[in-house]
Amino acid sequence: MRRQPLVAGNWKMNGSLSANQALVAALLASRQGMEQVEIAVCVPYPYLDQVSRLVQGSWLALGAQDVSAHAAGAYTGEVAAGMLQDFACRYVIVGHSERRTLHAETDVLVSAKFAAVQGAGMVPVLCLGETLAEHQAGATLAVLFRQLDAVLAEHGVGAMTSCVLAYEPVWAIGTGLSASPGQAQEVHQALRRHVAALDEQVAAGLQIVYGGSVKADNAAQLFAQPDIDGGLIGGASLNAKDFLAICQAANY
Length: 252
Ligand code: PEP
Known about the structure:
Blueprint lengths: L5 E5 L6 H12 L9 E6 L4 H8 L4 E5 L16 H6 L4 E4 L2 H6 L4 H13 L3 E6 L3 H5 L3 H16 L8 E4 L13 H16 L3 H6 L1 E5 L7 H5 L6 E4 L6 H10 L3
Parallel strand pairs: 1-2, 1-8, 2-3, 3-4, 4-5, 5-6, 6-7, 7-8
The structure holds phosphoenolpyruvate (PEP).
């Protein structure tokens, strides 16, 4: 049995009050042909209030792109999970490669952020991905298992019952170079088997989405793979037409 597909847009550091208004209005006007898909937009912090109001009571879920590992206190510039929950976020991305690379986030820190999100009753979208050098060195699975094991070791396989894994090869993010459907399927299957070695039932229900240059013209083939349960979409999520076409492709 297939898991419910999820397509989440990661707006990254893009948007404005007027652009967000237009984009969300276009999405909300277009549910037809994608009724089976859970759809979310992960927006920059300053726009959580705006987008939370726009999507309130609708089928469109709200997400954030990062979170502090701390609950409150003297952490200038950080945003706590409880604050995200105040704006009715359902999803929070943790461990995006841009955070791991540009902000030196370690596996341990990402694991703490993962726990902060779950502790506040939201769903972490845990990004896992290897660099081009790691990919070329044949180290893909070793890297992904290391990143995933940091969470499993700290929080146990039970933590996988209310999270989403996002396989995002770093070499495919924003580059136009997507992993092939076969390549991505192989990795998703390996991730699921890794979790299944701890708990088969949890692994069977675990949503694993793919991210990395998903576009309207490659989405259907990626989502047709048995272990690919949707996508995390960067660039293409900023254009309503492109994002909706990707959502439709996940309506299997
Ligand atoms: C991302 O940043 O999560 C992503 C997948 O980006 P893009 O779709 O632009 O490659």
